[in-house]
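Rotation project, supervised by the postdoc (A.L.). Task for the rotation student: set up a whole-complex structure prediction and record inputs and outputs verbatim in this book. Inputs entered:
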Amino acid sequence: EAGVVQSPRYKIIEKKQPVAFWCNPISGHNTLYWYLQNLGQGPELLIRYENEEAVDDSQLPKDRFSAERLKGVDSTLKIQPAELGDSAVYLCASSLDLGTDNEQFFGPGTRLTVL
Amino acid sequence: GENVEQHPSTLSVQEGDSAVIKCTYSDSASNYFPWYKQELGKGPQLIIDIRSNVGEKKDQRIAVTLNKTAKHFSLHITETQPEDSAVYFCAASVFDYALNFGKGTSLLVTP
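Outputs recorded:
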């Protein structure tokens, strides 16, 4: 079975440009997470979806970041405009159900470099 | 919010020795404590987890212990092998909500 798929794997953009990341979770997983991982740090949650509903977006910088999961399956995370400090790895994870013995499965991440 | 501290930041052991990584957490409501292994260029992978109703859990060469009173939990890897070299993250959460990660431990196992 395929794991969590993310694309692109790498992205280099100039500051003030927009960028978008795509995630396809494991089939049947209704909970989807976007995490930000800075170099040498652990992942930090940006947003959590249960199906198509964003149930926790308290850590998402809403002035420049947006996310959607329109059909409750794949998801897109967007930054507009990007800043130098946004350079990081953006990880997507999914789990089968919230509140049960569910493991979060992570994708390989998208490494963003903002010049 | 939850604050998870992890030590050491780097750990070097010889093949066959044991490795221990320790984490503390601040939120007494946290009840789920997973450990992830992250290899270069890959996403974190769950290696073992423990819930607050259990004090210890073991899976082959890997074990985790939890002390709820002291709010700390530890990862123990015995008979280390070179392929155990990676960055290890501890995390804590209330149920299975958003994971709060430590800063990671870079483990190097030398032959």
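Student's summary: Residues 38 and 88 of chain A are 5 Å apart (CA to CA).
Supervisor addendum: Chain A has a mean pLDDT of 93.
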